[in-house]
Task: inverse folding
C-alpha cells in the first residue's frame, strides 16, 4: 500500500515553455502533498506544501509565480514550471501524507527536467 | 549543528558485514526524525519515523536509535546483503510536516 506515482518521469523542453508534473496518491487520500527538488550532489530541498483545496505554502526563495501548484483533489497535485529556463533543470519529486504531523510521507519516483 | 548532516557520505562493505551510519540534527525544538532508503530509479522507501528520545525501531535487519537531547540518530544494518545497496536518507521534521533532509549515506554491499 501507500503508493505515489509521478508523471512524467523525465521531460526535456525548450527554454520559455511551461511543464506540468503530476503527483498522484494511488491507494490513499493525501491531505497534504509536498514538492521537493534536488540539484546534483545536494540534498532534497522542500519547495512547497499543499493542502487539498487551499493555496500552497512556499518555502523561502521559491517563486510562487514560477512554480504553480494545484492540489485539486485528495489524490492529485500538480506542479507547473512556468517559462522554464536552463537553471530550472533539476530533479523534482513529490510526497504525500495521509495524516498530519509525525506521519510517514510517501514519495513518488521523481521527474527529471532538462530545459534546453 | 544547524542543518541535518549524515556520515559517512559513502560506505562500501562486504556481504555479511554489519554496518551503521549517523544522522546529526539540531536538538532544539525536536519534533520527529525520518529515515528513508532510496534505490536508484525508484521512490524513496520510508523506513522509520522516530519521535521519542531513546526510541529504538526495527524492521527486519535494519534498526535505528534516536537521541534527541544530543541530536543524533544511528541506523544499523545487520548482516548486509547486496540488495541493501542504496542511499539512506534521514530528515528532520519541523512544524507543518516540513522535512529537512541530509545528503544521504550511499551504501554499497559487495557480494
Result:
Amino acid at each position: 500500500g501507500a503508493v505515489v506515482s509521478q508523471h512524467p518521469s523525465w521531460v526535456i523542453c525548450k527554454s520559455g515553455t511551461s511543464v506540468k508534473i503530476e503527483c498522484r496518491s494511488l491507494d490513499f487520500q493525501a491531505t497534504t502533498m509536498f514538492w521537493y527538488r534536488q540539484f546534483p550532489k545536494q540534498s532534497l530541498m522542500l519547495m512547497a506544501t499543499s493542502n487539498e483545496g487551499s493555496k500552497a505554502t512556499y518555502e523561502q526563495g521559491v517563486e510562487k509565480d514560477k512554480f504553480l501548484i494545484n492540489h485539486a483533489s485528495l489524490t492529485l497535485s500538480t506542479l507547473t514550471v512556468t517559462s522554464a529556463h536552463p537553471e530550472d533543470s533539476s530533479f523534482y519529486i513529490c510526497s504525500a501524507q495521509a495524516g498530519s504531523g509525525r506521519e510517514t510521507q510517501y514519495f513518488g519516483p521523481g521527474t527529471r527536467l532538462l530545459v534546453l | 549543528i544547524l542543518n541535518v548532516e549524515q556520515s559517512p557520505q559513502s560506505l562500501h562493505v562486504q556481504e555479511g558485514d554489519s554496518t551503521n551510519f549517523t544522522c546529526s540534527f539540531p536538538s532544539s525544538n525536536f519534533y520527529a526524525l525520518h529515515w528513508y532508503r532510496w534505490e536508484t530509479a525508484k521512490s524513496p522507501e520510508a523506513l522509520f519515523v522516530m519521535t521519542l528520545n531513546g526510541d529504538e525501531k526495527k524492521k527486519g535487519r535494519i534498526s535505528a536509535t534516536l537521541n534527541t537531547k544530543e541530536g543524533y540518530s544511528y541506523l544499523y544494518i545487520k548482516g548486509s546483503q547486496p540488495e541493501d545497496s542504496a542511499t539512506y536518507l534521514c530528515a528532520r521534521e519541523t512544524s507543518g510536516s516540513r522535512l529537512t533532509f541530509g545528503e544521504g549515506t550511499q551504501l554499497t554491499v559487495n557480494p
The CA atoms of residues 37 and 92 of chain A lie 4 Å apart. Chain A has a mean pLDDT of 94.
